[in-house]
Amino acid sequence: MCGFASLLWGKCMSNEKLLVINAGSSSLKFHLYQIRDYEQATFEDLNLLFAGHLSGIGGAMAHIRILGPQGQPVLDRSAKENELKDLSAAQSFLAHWYSETINTTPLAVGHRIVHGGSKMHQSTIINDEVLAYLDALAPLAPLHQHNNLAPVHVIREHWPDLLQVACFDTAFHRTHCAMLGYYALPKEFYDEGVQRYGFHGLSYQYVAHYLRTHLPELYQQRVIVAHLGSGASACMMSQGKSLDTTMGFTALEGLPMATRPGRLDAGVVLWWMQQKQFTAAEIQHLLYNCSGMKGLSGISSDMRELLASNEESAQLALDYYAHHSAECMAGLGVISKGIDAIVFTAGVGENSPELREMIIDKLSWLGAKIDPERNLQSMQKISTKDSKISVWVIPTNEELVIARDTLLLAQQKTRMFVDRDR
Known about the structure:
The chain is α/β, with parallel strands linked by helices. It is built from 17 helices and 13 strands. An 8-stranded mixed β-sheet has the order 5-4-3-2-1-6-8-7, with helices on both faces. The chain is globular. Residues about 1-15 have low confidence and may be disordered.
């Protein structure tokens, strides 16, 4: 077996693998990369071997899908009874599949961690102190933080010497001007951590890298990136830096989402407490699991089902989504004093021409126009030639960003040991 400890003794240097784990509320994603020439490797030297997605964990429709390097299915089937009954079972499945398929332990494991709080401004190696700090942030991301950290605890228990890296959704937004970190509350709360953090930073980091590499002129412009998935947010960036974003203290603020309301009058929460006598746990469940498109439509949280429905409530939810998404996105133009481009990414942003059209139609007053045929085909640039704002579709790749940061930290630690032993 070739883990990080053996790497320090110079073994397995030509055949290193790096594992990325993204554990969510009902899914477990993983990517396994082969590293060419580990000591000199860069972003471009990470070759994808396998991409897996264990979805619907805990539900009747749980599914296992693992693809090879060219996107070919390696395993694609419904989960057997109790095979993915909870996150622990999903982790056990992944560990068993990995040991059966791969004959070496990975060099390191990188994890997506939703919340890094006020202390974590960049990806970091996980030690006891870091893990305790991240565990304490769970109330700020109750759907995600514990699940993100569950594989970390399991790996530390069984392979304590294996290098693990935490990569944060909040870190990308630490470039905001200081004022945008505040709410209009007494400063004592800010000092206690009630701040605007922003999320989906790994996705935005990938798009920024893509623009710098493939679309350098666009990289220099004032670009709104709309990460539209089950969770949704938008970010104004320029030259690869986040200027402002729609999410704040938790992943509840901003755009409406699949099961979360987005922007909400805080008085609603007071009304629930005072008039309904709801407990904190009941309110949390309402906000994170029962609101958004699911609550408004009364049908589904899945945009595909809503688009296929003839029910008035489905159309209401879609109209609400488009209107408030466009409203929040337009507001991001304040910090940059204008908008040059809009990039759609993530599941809904990449795959729903209908919702892209609905949102851009709400922004037509800014001169944004999309070409219907290019939009229908989800081409990279979908705006018309005379559009004052260019509109793009760029698939995100959070796992590749995690892999890159994990590789960099592994290299740094290796060099530190080598220098120390000289």
